[in-house]
C-alpha cells in the first residue's frame, strides 16, 4: 500500500506480470512484422517504461520516435488534448506501431491517428499495456492489448497521479474501501470458543463466516478444481500450499459480493497468508478491519477440549498428547500473524476466559469501537 499526494493506492499488477504482458505483445509484433521495419511511436510521458521494455523484446529492425500529449488532470481526464511534441520525421510509407501505457476513453489516440492519416503512413497499429473497455468509446481497433482492466485509476510503471508515481516498478490501483464492510480475523487456540463466537458475530453483524475447514470440505465434496488439488496434498499427508488455500478462501469471498463483511476463521495462519490477504482484498475494494484474538489459559483450553470430546466424537479432542501438540503448533504459527496485525494497529486481545456470554460482550465492545 502506498500514498501519493492525498490518495492511497494498493498493489494491482506485479512487475512479473507486467514483464509477461510485454513479452506477449512483443511476440505478437515479431510475428506480424516479420521482414518489416516498423516505426515504434511512444506516447509520452506515460509509455516511456512500456516502450523501453517492449523494444528490447522486439527481435527485428525497428525505429523509435516519441510524441507527447496531455489529457489528465489529477485522476480525471480533462477532455482537452494538447499537442506538446509532434513527430520529428517523415513517416510516409512507414509501418507504425503506436505504444501507449493505457487506453481509456481513446481521445488521445484519436488525435494521433488523425495526424498520422494526414502524413501518409502505410499502416498504423496500436499497442497498449492496459485498456479500460468499459469507457473506451472509439471506433478504431486497439490491436495489441496487454490486459483489460476495470475503470479504476492506476499509477506506476509510467502512469502518474499529478506527475508522481511513474517510477514504481509495478502498477497500483486507487483504494476505494467499502466503508460498510466489516472483515474480522477471528483467532484463538483450539478450545478458545471461536466457533461459538463466530456464530454470534454472524447473527449480530450479518457477516459471512469463512471457516478454512468448512471451505476445504465443501470444495473437496463438490470436487471443484481447487478442492481436488487440495485433496491431492492432504491424501499424501502434506500441508496444502498457501497459494491453494488462499485461492479457495478468495473464491468464497467472490461468491458473496453482497456480504456486509466476513469472519475469517482459521485463516490466515501464517504471515505469508496474511500478506497475501492484504494484497487480494483491496482489489475487491475492502480490507481487514481487525484481528480479534481470543486469549485463554492453556489449562482451561485442555479442560474445554476434553469436555468437548464427550459430545464431538473427535479423537483429537480426547487425547491429551494430541491436544498439547495442537496448542504448541498454534503458539508457534500464530505469534508472527499476531505481530503482523499488531504492526497495523488492528490486533485486539479478547479475554476468552469465563462464560461464553461474557466473552461475547467483550467481543462486541471491541468491534463497536472499530465500526
In short:
This protein is an alpha/beta fold. It is built from twelve helices and 15 strands. It has two domains: 173 residues, Rossmann fold (3-Layer(aba) Sandwich); 185 residues, 3-Layer(aba) Sandwich (Rossmann fold).
Structural commentary:
Helices cover 41% and strands 24% of the residues. It has helices at 15-32, 48-57, 107-119, 194-205, 212-222, 225-234, 242-254, 271-280, 298-312, 315-318, 320-342, 356-368, and strands at residues 2-4, 7-13, 39-44, 63-73, 76-85, 95-103, 123-131, 144-148, 154-155, 171-174, 184-187, 208-211, 262-265, 290-295, 347-351. It is elongated, with a radius of gyration of 27 Å. It folds into two domains: 2-174, Rossmann fold; 184-368, Rossmann fold. By secondary structure, it is of the alpha/beta class. Helix 6 (225-234) packs antiparallel against helix 7 and helix 7 (242-254) runs parallel beside helix 8 (271-280). It contains twelve helices and 15 strands. Strand 4 (63-73) and strand 5 (76-85) form a beta hairpin.
Number of domains: 2
Main β-sheet, spatial strand arrangement: 5-4-3-6-7-8
Helix and strand sequence = EEHEHEEEHEEEEEHEHHHEHEHHHEH
Task: Give the percentage of residues in beta strands.
Answer: 15-25%
CATH class of the largest domain: Alpha Beta
E-strand count:
15
What tags apply to this protein structure?
371 residues; alpha/beta; Rossmann fold
List the helices and strands and how they pair.
Elements: E1 2-4, E2 7-13, H1 15-32, E3 39-44, H2 48-57, E4 63-73, E5 76-85, E6 95-103, H3 107-119, E7 123-131, E8 144-148, E9 154-155, E10 171-174, E11 184-187, H4 194-205, E12 208-211, H5 212-222, H6 225-234, H7 242-254, E13 262-265, H8 271-280, E14 290-295, H9 298-312, H10 315-318, H11 320-342, E15 347-351, H12 356-368
Parallel strand pairs: 3-4, 3-6, 6-7, 7-8, 11-13, 11-14, 12-13, 14-15
Antiparallel strand pairs: 1-2, 2-10, 4-5, 9-10
Helix pairs in contact: 1-2, 4-12, 5-6, 5-7, 6-7, 7-8, 9-11
Amino acid at each position: 500500500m502506498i500514498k501519493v499526494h492525498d490518495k492511497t493506492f494498493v498493489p494491482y499488477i506485479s512487475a512479473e506480470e507486467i514483464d509477461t504482458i510485454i513479452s506477449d505483445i512483443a511476440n505478437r509484433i515479431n510475428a506480424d512484422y516479420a521482414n518489416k521495419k516498423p516505426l515504434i511511436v511512444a506516447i509520452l510521458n506515460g509509455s516511456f517504461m512500456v516502450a523501453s521494455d517492449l523494444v528490447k523484446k522486439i527481435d527485428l529492425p525497428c525505429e523509435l520516435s516519441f510524441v507527447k500529449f496531455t489529457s489528465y488532470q489529477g485522476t480525471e481526464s480533462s477532455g482537452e488534448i494538447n499537442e506538446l511534441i509532434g513527430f520529428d520525421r517523415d513517416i510516409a510509407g512507414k509501418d507504425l506501431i503506436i505504444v501507449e501505457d493505457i487506453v481509456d476513453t481513446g481521445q488521445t489516440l484519436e488525435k494521433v491517428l488523425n495526424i498520422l492519416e494526414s502524413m501518409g503512413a502505410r499502416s498504423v497499429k496500436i499497442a497498449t499495456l492496459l485498456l479500460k473497455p468499459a469507457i473506451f468509446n472509439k471506433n478504431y481497433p486497439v490491436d495489441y492489448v496487454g490486459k483489460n482492466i476495470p475503470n479504476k485509476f492506476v499509477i506506476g510503471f509510467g502512469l502518474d497521479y499529478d506527475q508522481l508515481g511513474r517510477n514504481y516498478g509495478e502498477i497500483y490501483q486507487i483504494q476505494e474501501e467499502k466503508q460498510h464492510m466489516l472483515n474480522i480475523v477471528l483467532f484463538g487456540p483450539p478450545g478458545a470458543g471461536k466457533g461459538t463466537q463466530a456464530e454470534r458475530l454472524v447473527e449480530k453483524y450479518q457477516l459471512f463466516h469463512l471457516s478454512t475447514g468448512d471451505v476445504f470440505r465443501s470444495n473437496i465434496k463438490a470436487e471443484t478444481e481447487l478442492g481436488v488439488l487440495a485433496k491431492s496434498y492432504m491424501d499424501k499427508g502434506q500441508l496444502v500450499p498457501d497459494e491453494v488455500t488462499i485461492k479457495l478462501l478468495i473464491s468464497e469471498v467472490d461468491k458473496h459480493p453482497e456480504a456486509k463483511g466476513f469472519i475469517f476463521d482459521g485463516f490466515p495462519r501464517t504471515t505469508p497468508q496474511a500478506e497475501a490477504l492484504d494484497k487480494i482484498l483491496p482489489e475487491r475494494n475492502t480490507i481487514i478491519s481487525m484481528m480479534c484474538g481470543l486469549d485463554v489459559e492453556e489449562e482451561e483450553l485442555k479442560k474445554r477440549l476434553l469436555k468437548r470430546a464427550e459430545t464431538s466424537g473427535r479423537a483429537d479432542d480426547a487425547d491429551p498428547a494430541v491436544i498439547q501438540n495442537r496448542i504448541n503448533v498454534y503458539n508457534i504459527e500464530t505469534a508472527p500473524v499476531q505481530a503482523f496485525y499488531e504492526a497495523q494497529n488492528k490486533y485486539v486481545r479478547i479475554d476468552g476466559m469465563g462464560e461464553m456470554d461474557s466473552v461475547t460482550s467483550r467481543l462486541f465492545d471491541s468491534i463497536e469501537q472499530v465500526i
